Structure formats: structure tokens, C-alpha cells
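Sample pair:
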Amino acid sequence: MLSKSKLKYIQTLGQKKFRQLEGSFIAEGPKIVSELLMAEGTVVKEVFALKEWINENKRLIAKVPCTEITVPELEKISQLSTPNRVLAIVQQFDAGGEIMTKGKITLALESIQDPGNFGTIIRIADWFGVQQIVCSEDSADLYNPKVVQATMGSIARIKVYYTNLHEWLASQKNIRICATVLKGQDITAMEKLNEAIILVGNESKGISPELLKLASKKITIPKKGKAESLNVAVATGIVLSHLI
């Protein structure tokens, strides 16, 4: 049974200002919730689930407060158009500390504002073993329910930073910055990278001129057909598949 106060509290977490205030976010669905429950260092505060999900996952939730709810209750607290069996309240991840780029690949995202694209990029980074993403401050909120959903659990494994991207890139003196553009060096002819910052731009505007000036190399996916552009998440996946 879900109390009115708890129901209202969960609903408020759909809004960024309340997520920031509480330091928590919502995760939904069996796949994502299970991933977060198993992820090292992830704090799942509470779980709200249908009876059958609870019965199937007793070991997974043994140490987490869990409330059995009904389908109508799940529909009231869910941020999804089609609620899926379980919802969890999760503690936001520590976003502090110095951003270390030595000896690794780092993704830098400028103004990626579509939550689905942002979440998918996080998932792609996880697939290719990229451990950190540095975002401009106007990028989508990491804890937006649509971002969380699109990560499919990868949100627990990728460190995401928000910063003044221009200042941060300008401070990266001894590392290659590869900017993804429409006209640059063919990525299929490049050697694999062990250390670099790969810069990806806004869905419609691309990388701003200010940031392009900081790039040491401009790279591109060779075009064979007539499509004007690629989805930013798809493009990120293709670039990573060739360069790392």
C-alpha cells in the first residue's frame, strides 16, 4: 500500500528541482532496476513493485526497503507511458573530483539536449568501455527519467561530469581533442586511439566555432549515400567503433 505522502513525493522526483533537492532519481522497469541493485557503489533507497516482481527478486531486494503496490498505484507514480512492474528511488551519483584524461578515452558532449540521445550515448560509451563523459552545462539532465531509461542501467557505470566545456577543453594542453564534423579526416583511415577527447556537438547545430578552435583534429564518418546527417547517438557509436 502506497501512502498519499509517498505517492506525492515520488511524483515530485519527475521534476529536476526536486531531484536536485533530494539528491535522488527515479529508475523504472525490471532491467534497469535490477542493474542498479547489482551495481557496485549504487545506493537504491527504496523499491516499489508489483507482487510478482517481488516474488521473483527476493534475493536482489533482501537489503532494500521494498513496498508492494498495485497496478493502479504504479501507474500513478510512473513516468513511463506504459509502466513496467517496478520503480526504484536511487541516490544520485557523486559527480565531484578532478576529471582525469591521461591514458583513456573521454567523450565530451556540447549541448546534447535530447534525453533519449543523451541516455543512448551513455549506453554506447558503456558498450565501448569509455568510462567518463564530460558535458556542457546546458546538456540534458543526467537524471531526467527519459535519460535514465535510455541508459538501460549504464548510468551506474559511466562517470558523467557537467562543466564549462570551453574552459575545460582549453585547459587540456597535452591531450588530443578530436572534433566530430561533416568534413574532416576519415575515421576509417585513422589508427586506434588509446588516449583522446572525442568532442561531439549539438543535435542540430553541431560543434560551436569556439570549441572547434580548441580541437587538434577534425574527424568525420565518410558518407556514401544521400542522407544529410546522422543521429548524434548513432554517429557517436560509429566513431567509437572505429577509433577504440
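Residues 23 and 92 are 5 Å apart (CA to CA).
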